[in-house]
Structures are given as structure tokens and as C-alpha cells.
Design a protein that fits this description.
This protein is α/β, with parallel strands linked by helices and 389 residues long. The chain is built from 12 helices and 15 strands.
Length: 389
């Protein structure tokens, strides 16, 4: 979906396909048929943007076979779909029964992360619509926080500088500009937008910036205005933003609140949980850990890294951080000029929701994604953007 900003520029809205597990090219093509096109039809548009997730095997199949890339591009066009952004964070196995810490491997200290991201950039340059010259890719924020030292930091920064050089060469060859955004996430070396400033300054290239995920920003209790002001002052490019909402509990000491939170403690993904006091940000790696012990303070709100559907907050006594998304979006695209032109709805946890909230059919999932995109569209038009045909 495309929108015209009041300054005349185009803002793209997509939804991320990592919600649909697929490790192979055949699986990606099935996603387009079984999920993406039905969502487009429900939204009622001739063209729908998708934030494509290409796992390792799918990406390598495309890199090895140029005709397969042309075939994918043809299939996108045939189904009324377009791609200006890729989700390059998960490498493989994102649809597994247990993902947890595996999603952070390989990290930016491993040469395979550089190879994979380079492949994604080359593919995106070929998948961009004919009238679009700029693409974006989100990636993990360097590494999970453990076993990371100065030597590993130097290795990661060098890999990103090498990537920037390759992206320069790619634009010279294709005329397409691809940028990479580190996506701050709780528990990682870069947990917050503030944490991103030093390493991105060290890398020192405008093709390497940040992806602002509004669930992650909310989970770490970041103020959107302060966060975006800091990025602007540091001249860190906001490559893209993922529109998502976290799980919020105002009174975590109450038994009914803890019972409601426990329903979201599931075995597939990490749900890092945070609480902020005037003195510090307190955290656990998972929601179950927070509920089982006394690691987090009980007298202050908790937030958990659980991407809850945008259009419907969980039932009381818990809720979502939709208001943080709204405040962030107003700063990103509500000013005289957009701070980013690539927006992506990224609720990948539909099948991890408590059983009574999960979609049980493809149609129900498509209806939910459509409702999220409709909400995002309404937020954008309320900010003065005009939806384009």
C-alpha cells in the first residue's frame, strides 16, 4: 500500500510474511498464493506491499538461479503484490516449534550473516517495483548480549562496513539503493535506540541505519519522542519501522494480572519482560522467568516482548502498547517530512497467542492481518497522508 505524504514523497506500508512459516522458495510461492493475495483482496486494493522474509534456503535457491528470481517477480506482479523491504532478521527455522535464542544466530560476528544479508540485498534490488529505486532490509542488532566483547564488536562493525561497500557497488551496478537497519531488541547488544547510536556511528555509513520496532521500543519503556530526537541529532538514518504492539500489565502484583500474563507464556518465542523504576530498567529473558521469581519489581508496570495484534488489545486486566505505536508513527511520518518511508506491520505471533485468541483457519488469519492493515491505514490517513491507488 502506498501513501502520499503532504511533502509529496511516497510512504510504503506492508505486512511482514514471517508470520507464514516457509523455509524454501516453493514455500514462499505458496505464501503468496495462500495468504498474501487473499489479504490483498480483503483490503480491497489492486496492489499490496509485503515485507518479504526469505529464509536461508529460499534466498540461496534464488541466488543460484536467476530465472527463479524472474519467476518470483512475475508471481508477485500476477498476484498484485510488491516488495520494497525484506525482513532479514530470522535466518532459518522461524516456524519451528521452539525458536527462542536460535533467532539470534548467526549474528554479525559470523561471516554467514554478512553473506546472507548480501544475498538479500542483491535479491531485493531485482524484486523492487520498476518505479521504486530504494529498498530496505531489517537485521538483528549485532548479537545477543552474552559472549560479546571488544574483539567481537570490532568483527561485527567490520562486517557492516564491508556490507556498506557492497551496497555501494550494488547501486552502481543496478541503480537501486538498498539500506540496512539494525533492529534494537530487548536482550541484545543493541537493546534500545540509544544503544544503536555508538555502533552505528562507529560503522559510519549512511547505508547502515536503524529499524525502529515499536513493540521493542515500548517493551524497553523508551519514550518515542526522546528516542527519535536522539537518532535525528546523531544523524542515524531510520531505514524502516516495524509497526507492532507489546503486552502491557499495569499492576503485575495482582493475582488476576499474573494469571492473564501466564496465558501468554508459550514455548516458541522469547518474550523478554521489562519493568522500569526511577533507578533502572529491570529485565528477564522470558515471561515465564518473570512470573516465576522476584527478579522484576512488582509495584511498577511490566511489558513483555509479545507482538499482540494491533487492532484488538488483549482483554483486561492486561492491554497493549498501541499508544506507543501511535506516538511513534506521528513522529515518523506526521511531521513536515517523513523520517522513514518504509513501514511494516509485523505481528508474527498469531499462532503463539493464547488458544482462544488464535486464528484457526487461513481465512481467520487473513481477516486478522487485514484488520491490522486497516488500522495502520487509518492512522496514516489521520496524520494527513493520502492513500494512493
Amino acid at each position: 500500500m502506498r501513501f502520499r505524504h503532504p511533502d509529496g514523497s511516497t510512504v510504503h506500508l506492508a505486512y511482514c510474511t514471517n508470520v507464514h512459516p516457509a523455509e524454501t522458495l516453493e514455500g514462499v510461492l505458496a505464501q503468496l498464493r495462500d495468504h498474501c493475495e487473499p489479504v490483498r483482496k480483503r483490503v480491497g486494493r489492486d496492489r499490496l506491499g509485503i515485507g518479504l522474509w526469505l529464509a536461508k534456503d529460499a534466498a540461496r535457491a534464488l541466488i543460484r538461479d536467476p530465472s527463479a528470481v524472474r519467476g518470483l517477480r512475475t508471481e508477485l506482479d500476477r498476484r498484485g503484490l510488491e516488495v520494497v523491504t525484506l525482513n532479514g532478521f530470522p535466518y532459518e527455522g522461524f516456524g519451528s516449534a521452539e525458536v527462542k535464542y536460535r533467532v539470534y544466530k548467526p549474528d554479525w560476528t559470523d561471516p554467514e550473516r554478512l553473506t546472507h544479508t548480501t544475498d538479500l540485498a542483491r535479491l531485493l534490488a531485482q524484486l523492487l517495483p520498476d518505479d521504486v529505486t530504494e529498498g530496505s532490509i531489517s537485521t538483528l542488532p549485532l548479537a545477543w548480549r552474552t559472549s560479546y566483547d571488544a574483539d567481537r564488536a570490532a568483527t561485527a562493525h567490520a562486517a557492516l562496513r564491508t556490507l556498506a561497500e557492497r551496497l555501494d557497488a550494488l547501486e552502481e551496478l543496478t541503480g537501486r539503493s538498498i539500506r540496512i537497519g539494525l533492529e534494537p531488541e530487548p536482550g541484545c547488544i543493541v537493546e534500545t535506540t540509544h544503544d544503536a547510536i555508538a555502533p552505528l556511528t562507529a560503522v559510519g555509513h549512511d547505508r547502515i541505519g536503524i529499524c525502529v520496532d515499536t513493540c521493542h521500543l515500548a517493551t524497553s519503556f523508551e519514550d518515542p519522542h526522546t528516542a527519535l530526537d536522539e537518532l535525528t541529532a546523531a544523524r542515524i538514518p531510520i531505514v524502516k519501522s516495524q509497526l507492532s504492539a507489546a503486552l502491557h500489565a499495569e499492576h503485575p502484583h495482582l493475582p488476576d494480572v499474573r494469571e492473564a500474563l501466564a496465558a501468554f507464556d508459550e514455548p516458541r518465542f522469547l518474550h523478554q519482560t521489562r519493568a522500569r523504576t526511577p533507578a533502572a530498567l529491570h529485565g528477564t529473558d522470558d515471561l515465564g522467568e518473570a512470573l516465576a521469581g522476584d527478579t522484576l519489581p512488582q509495584a511498577t508496570p511490566w511489558r513483555a516482548h509479545f507482538h499482540v495484534p494491533l487492532h484488538t488489545a488483549p482483554a483486561a486486566p492486561v492491554t497493549s502498547t498501541l499508544s506507543v505505536l501511535q506516538d511513534t508513527l506521528a513522529r515518523l511520518v506526521g511531521g513536515p517530512h517523513p523520517l522513514t518511508s518504509h513501514l511494516e506491520v509485523e505481528t508474527y505471533t498469531w499462532q503463539a497467542l493464547p488458544p482462544e485468541l488464535r486464528p484457526h483457519t487461513r481465512a481467520q488469519l487473513a481477516d486478522g492481518i487485514t484488520a491490522e492493515l486497516t488500522l495502520a491505514r487509518d492512522l496514516l490517513t489521520d496524520l494527513g497522508l493520502k492513500e494512493l491507488p
